[in-house]
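Attaching the record inline, Q. Sequence:
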Amino acid sequence: MSNPLVSVIIPAYNAARFLPDAVASVRRQCYAPLEILIVDDGSEDHCARVAAELGEPVRYVRQAQSGPAAARNRGLELAQGEFVGFLDADDEWPEQKLSIQMSRLLAEPELDLVLGRVRYVALEGGAIPDYTFEGPDHVLSNVHLGSGLYRRRVFRKVGNFDASLHYCEDLDWFMRARELRLRLRILRPVTLIYRLHGGNMTRHRDRADQFLSTALKRSMDRRRMGAGATAPLDRWFSYDEWWPGTRPLVSVIVPVFNGARFVREALDSIFMQTHRPVEAIVVDDGSTDATGEVLDQFGPRVRRAYQTHSGQSEARNRGVELATGRYLAFLDADDLWPVEKLAAQVAILEQDPECDLLFGHVQQFRQNAGGESEPMPGHVPGTLMVRRDTWLRVGPLRSDVKVGEFLDWILRARQQGMRERMDGRVWLRRRLHEDNLGVRERDARGDYLRLLKDAMDRRRQPPGAGGPA
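Structure, as predicted:
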């Protein structure tokens, strides 16, 4: 399956010193194919020479100085992609931006565009603004043009940027998009690194405020209802909220190490689920076989992350970091799900807000051998569905043990008072073969005793005291 082309539009004015970093951040994306369109808005520095040295897939065009809105519009005229992203020449994209946002747009076809959070970074001559940030790393949820990924069709509906606005042209566009009730979602991951320096356009606050007033007045004028009344704007949804009548996103995390033999079947069992939307995140734990070639066949339906061989716990933790769904589910690369698994679990959790951890039964089968085991209760990752917020409260899986890390996680959840439920239906078909983790790590079973001791030690500690890592 081929990935849809993404056109990245970079307006540039006297930004030669920043362009290499901006383009490098696009090239680092775990996504292809891309086209990078640099629109030089009448620069007086050596922007043209720098752009020429950047090579493929960069296309460079120059126009008389007309402002960033006109430069972005020129990029839209030239763009060939089905999806479009914007990056100012002095900013950067984090590595997973496109894979996160593309998988979300494909998982939820009703979405017109997705944004993410913005991280502010001060360069020489720059200063972090006095905003109320959402954490110590200067991250903020914001409606910011560069944090988004857009279906190309939305510009045919909303129109291009207003070139008469030299500031706040992005706000004006977002207001028009909101008035037309485009469906937008702001995701948790950081999708833009906003770099502050001495030459940022936003430093000219008085001029920017004038254009801000113009953009807001135009929106109010468009929404006039007579007798002085103004039609309200629909709210946009962020994080794991969803529209009435739509179903919540489930993030499915698949750790894989040398799983080329089985991972296709595991992923097929995810995409055959009767529940939609589903986000499949595969974390390749340093595979040396043909796993990557198998994953290539799934195209953008699968979000992929790579790590040096660090174990299943680290892979699952990495997948949780990348997840954007309301619910989390886990599937090992050699196991299978019945098609109704996710739909049944979402229905239960939606109806029972008191349930934190939802498990089901496991049925084991042996590869290339007849017969299946009798179903049995399964307190294992493959049967679990959990709210993402619940998982974060309990904390990540331990990575200092080879086996038993999920048992430790359950014990910590119980000690925190999380409520669990065991459903009687089979929600996991576990494949038995010679490379099962339990077979490979049979000599590490002493880890279970260590984990149980740690759990007992935690129970003896006074409330609020820290436990073992």
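The two ends are 42 Å apart (CA to CA). Residues 18 and 90 are 5 Å apart (CA to CA).

More tomorrow.
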